[in-house]
């Protein structure tokens, strides 16, 4: 970038019209890419300065006219020269070239460009005359050892491909006995006049109709190909952009119209369109001006581009259409304009997402409503199999979910939408999905039902809602075998209060306290193992079996004694635990051990024995049955073991 273009670029950003005129008068090119990858013309369009843009466009028109005039003059001059040459019957010098190769029999083949070389053969097939337009004496016939040759240039094709680089290895295929033959010229020069300015064509490794004696390897073939590509690339990079082209790309592939539309400069867009800027060209990501206008709340620009012939179906490299862009940004007016212009309402991007899916994923309710009214399909799945309804549940948007369900959206049970609604703690969404037909006891990929998920997260209100709608209270996870009650105990972060709330709901719907997990734990075993004393006490009072085999196998009661936990020890014993089989120390050291030793050798009180008998009879129904009895509250409290508390048993 020259200093003129740099000054022009800065003048555009300052919106200094006088400076812009000055730099243009000095010959600055408005299409030169500056160090930031932008052009002065693009900068003016981005700022929306109509005066500067008009100045650029006027200069562009003038340069185009001058270019056409000079081209016409040059053509006329060439025609006049050719006419004079024909009238004078003057032969034009031939600045063409030829390349000579030899076959196995020593015969000579010539490829000729822009010249006339005439070869005659004798009866034996030997060449005996070579002529060119330039001068018949420029090339002479010479016979060495019976082999007839015109010339073999010292520069082989390999030399041309490597630009005579002395550091590049020589290819042995081109080392032949003909490589030392000189090119004969009348003045003794090795290179004929005009050949030093020769621009070589691509090296052809195989001459059609001839059989080469030298094998061509694939690596060398690619070498020549890349050499030619580099030559062409170099010439392309050296070429400066035309200052009269109003559709020149900058480093980002953007044109002036792109910048004007993305900034919403209506007057600039009108000016550029009227000047002839292309409306259906993309940038580096194939974003057209219409894509960029669709991303902004400028429906006037969208309308201008559509009227100018912008393709509403054009897609980016990710197959994103302008309708995708407007729908994802919630631009309802743009969406309406695009659909009225014929945009496909169910068009898919590279992830198979529709405009409806994009609008749902961003919770644009007004756009979703309009697309549904226009007939958008509600059950199309994207590349991962998810539907707009799935996305709406994830976005916790009950309004959109209702609209989709009313429009005919189907619940895909394998998406586990009810699980996600429970996980999001969205009671209204749970109720909506249950009413729409979600399977309430369906297990997810973790083997959990929605009720188990609610139990894990201590959601009492959602758990009650699920149970009221038919959720199985004793259903187990097929991974762990845990019931909702197991999960409430295992996830004890909610504390005693949360546990009691959840347990009261589960008990109301007849929870089974003796269901074993895959590890063999009942709910009481798990509470003891997790040392969740409040949960263990609640379970014992409500009739959990204190003599379950797993309690004996794991020595869970013995651990209570070792921990000095008299509260749970008393609950165990007065709930009917068979403690007399336990081996105690002959010399008890703690108060709990001394109490157990005395209890073991002395008979229990009659009231305690009666309580054990009543509880054994009612089992897990003890609370329900005792509460229904017409007894004094003190007796009810006694039978429920509520007289034994942690505070009265601290040792």
Automatic annotation (TrEMBL):
Q: List the source organism.
A: Polyplax serrata (Common mouse louse)
UniProt ANK repeat ranges: 252-284, 285-317, 318-350, 351-383, 384-416, 413-445, 446-478
What keywords would UniProt list here? ANK repeat, Repeat
Residues covered by the SOCS box domain? 589-645
Q: Where are the transmembrane segments?
A: none
Entry's PROSITE patterns?
ANK_REP_REGION (PS50297), ANK_REPEAT (PS50088), SOCS (PS50225)
Organismal lineage: Eukaryota, Metazoa, Ecdysozoa, Arthropoda, Hexapoda
Q: Where are the coiled-coil regions?
A: none
Q: Which domain of life is it from?
A: Eukaryota
Protein name, per record: SOCS box domain-containing protein
């Amino acid at each position: 970038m020259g200093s003129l273009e740099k000054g022009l670029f800065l003048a555009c950003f300052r919106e200094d019209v006088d400076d812009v005129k000055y730099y243009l008068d000095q010959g600055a090119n408005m299409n030169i890419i500056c160090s930031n990858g932008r052009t002065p013309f693009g900068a003016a369009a981005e700022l929306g300065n109509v005066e500067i843009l008009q100045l650029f466009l006027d200069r562009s028109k003038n340069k185009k006219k001058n270019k056409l005039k000079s081209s016409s003059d040059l053509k006329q001059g060439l025609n006049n020269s050719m006419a004079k040459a024909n009238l004078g019957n003057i032969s034009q010098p031939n600045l063409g070239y030829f390349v000579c190769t030899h076959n196995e029999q020593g015969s000579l083949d010539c490829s000729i460009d822009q010249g006339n070389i005439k070869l005659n053969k004798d009866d034996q097939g030997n060449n005996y005359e070579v002529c060119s337009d330039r001068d018949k004496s420029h090339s002479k016939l010479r016979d060495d050892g019976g082999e007839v040759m015109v010339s073999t240039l010292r520069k082989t094709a390999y030399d041309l491909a490597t630009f005579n680089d002395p550091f590049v290895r020589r290819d042995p295929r081109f080392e032949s006995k003909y490589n030392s033959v000189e090119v004969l010229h009348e003045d003794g020069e090795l290179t004929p006049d005009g050949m030093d300015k020769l621009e070589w064509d691509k090296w052809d490794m195989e001459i059609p109709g001839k059989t080469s004696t030298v094998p061509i390897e694939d690596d060398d073939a690619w070498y020549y190909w890349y050499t030619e590509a580099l030559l062409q690339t170099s010439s392309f990079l050296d070429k400066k952009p035309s200052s009269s082209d109003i559709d020149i790309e900058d480093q980002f592939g953007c044109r002036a119209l792109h910048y004007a539309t993305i900034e919403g400069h209506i007057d600039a867009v009108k000016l550029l369109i009227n000047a002839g800027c292309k409306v259906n060209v993309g940038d580096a990501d194939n974003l057209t001006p219409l894509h960029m206008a669709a991303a902004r709340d400028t429906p006037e620009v969208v309308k201008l581009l559509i009227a100018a012939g912008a393709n509403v179906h054009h897609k980016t490299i990710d197959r994103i259409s302008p309708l995708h862009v407007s729908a994802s940004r919630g631009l309802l007016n743009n969406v309406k304009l695009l659909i009225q212009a014929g945009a496909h309402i169910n068009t898919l991007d590279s992830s198979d997402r529709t405009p409806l899916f994009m609008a749902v994923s961003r919770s644009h309710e007004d756009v979703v409503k309009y697309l549904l009214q226009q007939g958008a399909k509600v059950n199309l799945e994207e590349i991962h199999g998810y539907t707009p309804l799935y996305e709406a549940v994830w976005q916790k948007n009950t309004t959109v979910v209702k609209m989709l369900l009313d429009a005919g959206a189907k619940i895909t049970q394998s998406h586990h939408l009810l699980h996600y609604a429970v996980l999001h703690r969205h009671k209204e969404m749970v109720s909506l999905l249950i009413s729409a037909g979600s399977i309430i006891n369906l297990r997810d990929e973790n083997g959990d039902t929605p009720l188990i998920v609610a139990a894990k997260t201590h959601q009492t209100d959602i758990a009650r809602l699920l149970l009221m709608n038919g959720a199985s209270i004793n259903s187990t996870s097929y991974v762990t075998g845990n019931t909702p009650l197991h999960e409430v105990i295992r996830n004890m972060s909610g504390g005693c209060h949360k546990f009691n709330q959840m347990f009261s709901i589960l008990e109301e719907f007849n929870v089974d306290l003796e269901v074993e997990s895959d590890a063999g734990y009942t709910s009481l075993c798990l509470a003891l193992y997790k040392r969740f004393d409040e949960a263990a006490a609640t379970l014992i009072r409500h009739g959990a079996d204190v003599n379950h085999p797993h309690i004996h196998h794991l020595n869970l009661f013995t651990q209570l004694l070792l921990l000095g936990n008299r509260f749970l020890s008393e609950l165990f014993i007065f709930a009917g635990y068979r403690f007399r089989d336990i081996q105690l120390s002959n010399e008890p050291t703690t108060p709990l051990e001394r109490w157990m030793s005395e209890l073991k050798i002395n008979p229990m009180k009659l009231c305690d024995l009666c309580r054990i008998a009543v509880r054994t009879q009612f089992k897990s129904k003890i609370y329900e049955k005792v509460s229904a009895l017409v007894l004094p509250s003190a007796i009810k409290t006694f039978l429920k073991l509520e007289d034994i508390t942690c505070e009265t048993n601290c040792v």
